[in-house]
Amino acid sequence: xxxxxxxxxxxxxxxxxxxxxxxxxxxxxxxxxxxxxxxxxxxxxxxxxxxxxxxxxxxxxxxxxxxxxxxxxxxxxxxxxxxxxxxxxxxxxxxxxxxxxxxxxxxxxxxxxxxxxxxxxxxxxxxxxxxxxxxxxxxxxxxxxxxxxxxxxxxxxxxxxxxxxxxxxxxxxxxxxxxxxxxxxxxxxxxxxxxxxxxxxxxxxxxxxxxxxxxxxxxxxxxxxxxxxxxxxxxxxxxxxxxxxxxxxxxxxxxxxxxxxxxxxxxxxxxxxxxxxxxxxxxxxxxxxxxxxxxxxxxxxxxxxx
Amino acid sequence: xxxxxxxxxxxxxxxxxxxxxxxxxxxxxxxxxxxxxxxxxxxxxxxxxxxxxxxxxxxxxxxxxxxxxxxxxxxxxxxxxxxxxxxxxxxxxxxxxxxxxxxxxxxxxxxxxxxxxxxxxxxxxxxxxxxxxxxxxxxxxxxxxxxxxxxxxxxxxxxxxxxxxxxxxxxxxxxxxxxxxxxxxxxxxxxxxxxxxxxxxxxxxxxxxxxxxxxxxxxxxxxxxxxxxxxxxxxxxxxxxxxxxxxxxxxxxxxxxxxxxxxxxxxxxxxxxxxxxxxxxxxxxxxxxxxxxxxxxxxxxxxxxx
Amino acid sequence: xxxxxxxxxxxxxxxxxxxxxxxxxxxxxxxxxxxxxxxxxxxxxxxxxxxxxxxxxxxxxxxxxxxxxxxxxxxxxxxxxxxxxxxxxxxxxxxxxxxxxxxxxxxxxxxxxxxxxxxxxxxxxxxxxxxxxxxxxxxxxxxxxxxxxxxxxxxxxxxxxxxxxxxxxxxxxxxxxxxxxxxxxxxxxxxxxxxxxxxxxxxxxxxxxxxxxxxxxxxxxxxxxxxxxxxxxxxxxxxxxxxxxxxxxxxxxxxxxxxxxxxxxxxxxxxxxxxxxxxxxxxxxxxxxxxxxxxxxxxxxxxxxx
Amino acid sequence: xxxxxxxxxxxxxxxxxxxxxxxxxxxxxxxxxxxxxxxxxxxxxxxxxxxxxxxxxxxxxxxxxxxxxxxxxxxxxxxxxxxxxxxxxxxxxxxxxxxxxxxxxxxxxxxxxxxxxxxxxxxxxxxxxxxxxxxxxxxxxxxxxxxxxxxxxxxxxxxxxxxxxxxxxxxxxxxxxxxxxxxxxxxxxxxxxxxxxxxxxxxxxxxxxxxxxxxxxxxxxxxxxxxxxxxxxxxxxxxxxxxxxxxxxxxxxxxxxxxxxxxxxxxxxxxxxxxxxxxxxxxxxxxxxxxxxxxxxxxxxxxxxx
Lengths: 306, 306, 306, 306
Prior knowledge:
Four copies of one chain form a homotetramer.
Chain A: H1 2-14, E1 20-21, H2 26-29, E2 37-41, E3 47-51, E4 57-58, H3 63-75, H4 96-100, H5 111-122, H6 127-142, H7 151-159, H8 162-173, H9 181-193, E5 195-196, H10 198-204, H11 206-209, E6 213-214, E7 219-220, H12 224-237, H13 243-249, E8 254-256, E9 261-266, E10 270-275, E11 278-279, H14 286-299
Antiparallel strand pairs in A: 1-11, 2-3, 2-10, 4-5, 6-7, 8-9, 9-10
């Protein structure tokens, strides 16, 4: 395993077409594109890593997996009155389908859906409290109390909030958000700003590898059915309108973020976190996707074979 | 296993809300909705079955899995110039996205995509030859030479071809079909009219269970990577705009048909064919989906857990 | 003429199906639906009126005609870089087409377009100054210094701003708005809250009857070509996705508002203002449209005949 | 008037950017783009012409005005159950809105709408009979028995029917067409192939100038209200998604065809036919539109002023 990761890191270092760093959030635009990290956590407690696996990056939309988990914990199936669970076939920030479907987002992983989820878990509380809850959960599953928000990134996103503000006000106009739009957005942007390394992220994903139990800590986070269902949502919707491509090439449930990270789950085998800041035209990490494709070719890990 | 199937069949016999038999193809509208069959084929060569598992039904869109396999065999990755591989988020017969994407269908499992695939595999030949090839392939993977077209169903579909004719002419107007529209449609409707039982269908699916090898016959049908990729397409797009729901509830790659059948693949474990003619509002078998949900709860089979 | 108006007012008083008062702005929902007014101003300086022609009502979207006129005066044809001039075929508050067209609204009479126009005429000034300019213009063309904003209505709209806020943030995310979204919306809602009577409104429309000259005051407001072009925009886009219907039934350029008013221009003949608060399902005054249909049948006024 | 037309023809002869001749119908692609004709018929029986005003061209979609008139004559308001009367905001051959509106075309001037109209006027008869009726009507209003179909053009269109076949089958799948699709299309393509000169076309339009009476022949063709309403439809929908632009620049009801002709009506004043085969990107005659813009600037003819 370590050998495979070393090879991948070496290969990625040679790549010249590294994609384009997200530039609509100025704070992210500063990140050096010549970085690449990969880490694999396995249920037996081992951790393998290569490249910049200890560098912190903004997890951005990967955080949607964690708030979905929290949301299902707090609301159970009632969460699905707030958001659907079908792939949308549209870009991450599309508003069109919202109009067709009376403001109900297609799934919890497009921006509109994630905003609806964070509104649902606020339950009348202030952003601060909800953010405390989210951070506590992420620290718990990653077994690491050093994980924090990057307030500069959050502030930078708030300053460039227009597209997400449009989505939020649109949903609010259909009565789909209960809280003040700016409070919901503030919470959402902070959730996205959480900074983690590949190592931390791989460990945080472990509970989805083992039917809900984090074998690193030995603690059951959620029940087995819910774990499977979160994985199914990552598979179907985790890469926006590139989800089909990811399933085709990588064959594992995964969730990407515009910070350049991708968390990928191989049930029963391991949790893989990759990171490289350059994105493809859909908004997924270019080298991250490539590295994962190499990884599954080497390991044969795939939910579609055995 | 046999016990589980018996229980499911008993449970399904008690169901009163059985959905609505497809009525836009008159020949299918005659089918008695009070039928239900299930069959499971495992790589060790065993076959389990319950209910009307030997009754022939029209496989309809399940045939798209087989023509996709043929298409990948004949054209390789060049097939993807004809059709995409993303879920569409739209109903099976939608034409809208075609307009946005210059006549290129989103994936091979919506009607437009399957029509594009059959056009691609015709390669200048007459419908008769292409249909011979398709039937031969299905008989080969099911190891059963009695499998045939139901010409009455095909003729009935040709008489009510308008929606599919619209899709085909639309693609043709963008230069996306090479052959005469009526010949392509004739081939497509015959492909859909193939009549199979649950037992036959379960056996035909075996090659997707074992990385491309049909363990019943011991023959490698396709290579392992292609097998995984066909499964990924079934997972992402196999149930139209109900694909997310199926992944969430059943957690296995599957492909449904408006004849009421569903073929489902559990990699490494088995191939499950269910059939019940009543459909839900999306066009998937109502009892079929329900039976599969019971089945995975009992067996724990899921690609998203282990 | 007076006789025709009296008859129409009598007829309208008998109507039982009066439509539904706009309820998404609470302040408007309080208006008594049993009101109807009509006024006709002619270039020779005469004024005819019947019913509640002196009652003030919220002109709402009719104000878009006035800000368009101001915008063309300040920016000339450069205004058309901010907004198009095609009918959209969509409801007044639709956001879909914005996504297809990179945030550029189809025309100045849908909400998004009117918001873009007000942003364009602000030119770096504060809402207060822009609003002063708008009010001054309306008082000037109506020759009536008593015309004012209804601050309660404006405040009520600001409290229910979400749909329009969504449109504004969406355009802003494409760089299409220069000013702060809340300032633009504040200006827009005040512009919509202007309260006028049928008499005042009919007089304000006179400059569009006579190729840009208000014959009541004898002052040229705009040149003849611009007057014709504003009329053409009212004809094509003045009633949202009911514009074709209005052209078919009434045959004159007109602009409706959800306050229940409609301003209609018969070039060379007169300016007609009607008002009745109950709306049809598209958001146009139900009795207002009906009264205008009666009016043109009696008078033969139509731009499509002679 | 003659002087104005001479000037326009001279100006147009100097134009170097003449647009692109329609190439999707091979028979039309052969037409020499260096042609331009204009003719004006007035109610007092006068005819003015300049340029290639006697050259025959394919009237194409201008024929939709004539079949609409026939359709309203045969079915009255019942025609509006087959087709709507709102501008669509979409290109002439768009299929999207059909999907949203269950196969009912937005208006009689987009292709789908014109196909629905021809289906409606067939009333169980064969294409031959319907075509006889259409030709008889056109000869009658133009007072010219030499007008004929161009069978070569019709055959060429039938060979490249796919986009229109797609529209027709789509509507048929919703039960919106009563007749065989190929018969409807055959009739439609022949109707579009009618060959006329500017002179003939200007005379044919006269009945819409004078409230339904053709003053050349002194015969009432339709009643005044219907004449106004056909003009309103030409205004709102006569140039597809360029209708707003035409209303803005020309200010008169008009209908264009991809053969390069435009028929324009100035109520009470005259009927103007222009022709030049090069098209703009929307499919309207480039020089034709330009010539009309010059014409209205010189004459002041506009329905939006007086």
